[in-house]
Amino acid sequence: MDDERVWKFEESLWRASEERYHERVDPDCVMALSREPWLFTGNDAVEAVSHTPAWEQVSFSQQDVRRPQEGLIAIAYRVAVTKGDTRFAAACTSVYRRRAHDDWTVVQHTQIALDPQQETA
């Protein structure tokens, strides 16, 4: 997956429906999110993000893509998102694993909440 597709994939998750999360978040995923209980694994990770808003505006900055080995992509970035009057900003990492040709899932995701008033992404 080239860099452009990586960022489209990641953006699609910020705009995702519950069904999309169930398709693209791996059952073996581990997550650290900005809310209790902070750490989520497996189906709990899928459920933790399944009920988040489908954000209307998504903006990335400080984007970095790494490919430590074939079939594994690690990314880091800052994100600023809005839906109506609701705003959220975070520093994030995600790791994707390729299951088959053009079939990628998220196996790790971390969000560190930032002050959305200071985010300029």
From TrEMBL:
Superkingdom as given in the UniProt entry: Bacteria
Gene3D superfamilies in alphabetical order: 3.10.450.50
Entry protein name: DUF4440 domain-containing protein
Organism of derivation: Paracoccus salipaludis
UniProt lineage: Bacteria, Pseudomonadati, Pseudomonadota, Alphaproteobacteria, Rhodobacterales
